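We were asked to recover a plausible sequence for a given structure. The inputs and outputs are reproduced exactly as logged, with field labels preserved.

PROBLEM: sequence recovery
POSITIONS: 459
GIVEN STRUCTURE:
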């Protein structure tokens, strides 16, 4: 028997196949984080589930590594590889909304921009990422944190089912009624179990929200962070919010003479009754003088894409992350010490609250292992010039070293991890790791899907 070639695969699929000889190769192999300059043997832009099945079978016949790419945002560059086959899902981006059932069926390569675009005309939404170009599948499989986490739970808490091509090239359905173990693992276990070709989500009535960013002086950061720590405990769950450091970009609501200055920022999203917005948001104006703000009624997708301009495709990325038990005074001091040195307009530290509806889901109900934590912190180093890699990664590492001892948690959110964090994988999955390893053994015993926050199949 002769070994099948990539040309053989081209004849077996409906989508496109790009190899190093093709003119579009450099574009096809590029991922969002420009640090990853990898050269796969081929990139298959799948058109449907059958293409995914063929691609998996082909990669196994050839013994090729498999990288799966949804939105391409993985900071460790899991959506590409050297010498292997990239399964690029960006050709499967359809989103079908059923307004009567309040559900959405979403293709495995859709972005949150695609999702919001399809759901918003019906006044519906679900928890998704805060940047519209991030992939729905990659974000959801790791958990899914966004503006609606406190009211609607994590993205996985709204996942009703998924179609998955597993390591044997077969398509299976996973839900509360079929392949329940797989469905459990998909909700927090990352891309370990197969290629998700479509997902079904529960939607919620979220239309116009009242929110946006409020900018405070760095000197007020201790007051702002302390306020956040307390307010998040009692604020109505329809209020989503996170803390951020932000060098002010040249935007109309920033005073001209403050462009380029560093601020601490609270980003808010009130998804409750608009009549209550003023009362719910008033404490943000009382805590310290607000130097600039862009808070008001806006369509939910407008907020969910408001920061896109700060993070264009092709920046260098290096991130580190922790879950946080308690935001102590010592932690706040460490944040301020290092936040003050935020090096570039694209870089930040975000501190997301993950209490409310997300915390009411039991720790074993899904594979997401850290339901008891109050916050998810990410130090997101993002900068344009590769010449600045050493200085910028140093900022992230030093910041992380300073806050980690105060986190009270070994693990961090798998979707916020860097490539050199593979030593933390078990801690990141937390209490659910051994069960995840058993599900992995059942669906991917040969670890075909290993370019991810990898779970070793149980023996
Ligand atoms: C700018 C930016 C903003 C972000 N904002 C948020 C946020 O608000 N909330 C949040 O929770 N996270 C956020 N993240 C983190 C994000 O969740 C992860 O980077 C996630 O992996 C991105 O998914 P993707 O599909 O875009 O990435 P990809 O690089 O395409 O995929 C990453 C991995 O996910 C898996 N995967 C992707 N698609 C599929 C599929 N169809 N089937 C099976 N496995 C798949 C694979 O293992 C793949 O290697 C952000 C990341 C970036 C860079």
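RECOVERED SEQUENCE:
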């Amino acid at each position: 028997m002769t070994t099948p070639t990539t040309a053989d695969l081209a004849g077996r699929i409906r989508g496109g196949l790009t190899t190093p000889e093709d003119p579009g190769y450099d574009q096809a192999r590029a991922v969002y984080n420009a640090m990853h300059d990898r050269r796969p043997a081929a990139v298959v832009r799948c058109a449907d589930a059958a293409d995914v099945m063929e691609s998996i079978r082909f990669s196994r016949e050839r013994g090729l590594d498999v990288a799966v790419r949804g939105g391409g945002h993985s900071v460790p560059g899991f959506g590409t590889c050297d010498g292997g086959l990239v399964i690029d899902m960006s050709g499967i981006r359809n989103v079908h909304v059923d307004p009567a059932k309040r559900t959405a069926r979403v293709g495995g390569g859709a972005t949150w921009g695609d999702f919001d675009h399809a759901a918003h005309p019906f006044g519906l939404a679900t928890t998704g990422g805060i940047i519209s170009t991030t992939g729905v599948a990659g974000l959801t499989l790791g958990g899914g944190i966004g503006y609606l986490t406190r009211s609607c739970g994590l993205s996985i808490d709204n996942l009703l089912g998924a179609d998955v091509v597993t390591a044997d090239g077969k398509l299976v359905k996973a839900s509360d009624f079929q392949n329940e173990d797989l469905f459990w693992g998909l909700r927090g276990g990352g891309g370990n179990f197969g290629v998700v070709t479509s997902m079904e989500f529960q939607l919620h009535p979220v239309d116009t929200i009242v929110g946006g960013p409020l900018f405070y002086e760095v000197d007020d950061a201790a007051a702002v962070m302390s306020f956040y720590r307390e307010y998040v405990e009692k604020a109505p769950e329809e209020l989503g919010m996170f803390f951020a450091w932000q060098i002010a970009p040249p935007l109309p609501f920033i005073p001209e003479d403050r462009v380029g200055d560093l601020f601490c920022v609270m980003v808010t999203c009130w998804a409750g009754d608009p009549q209550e917005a003023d009362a719910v948001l008033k404490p943000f104006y009382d805590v310290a003088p607000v130097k600039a703000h862009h808070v008001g009624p806006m369509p939910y997708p407008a907020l969910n894409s408001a920061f896109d301009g700060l993070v264009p495709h092709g920046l260098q990325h290096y991130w580190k992350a922790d879950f946080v038990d308690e935001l102590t005074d010592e932690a706040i001091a460490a944040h301020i010490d290092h936040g003050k040195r935020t090096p570039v307009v694209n870089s930040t530290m975000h501190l997301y609250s993950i209490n409310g509806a997300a915390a009411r889901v039991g720790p074993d109900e899904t594979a997401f292992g850290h339901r008891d934590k109050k916050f998810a912190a990410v130090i997101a180093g993002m900068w344009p010039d590769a010449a600045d890699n050493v200085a910028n990664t140093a900022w992230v590492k030093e910041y992380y070293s300073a806050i980690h001892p105060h986190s009270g948690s070994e693990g961090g959110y798998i979707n916020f991890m860097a490539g050199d964090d593979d030593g933390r994988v078990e801690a990141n999955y937390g209490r659910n790791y051994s069960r995840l390893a058993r599900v992995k053994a059942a669906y991917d015993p040969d670890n075909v899907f290993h370019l991810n926050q990898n779970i070793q199949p149980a023996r």
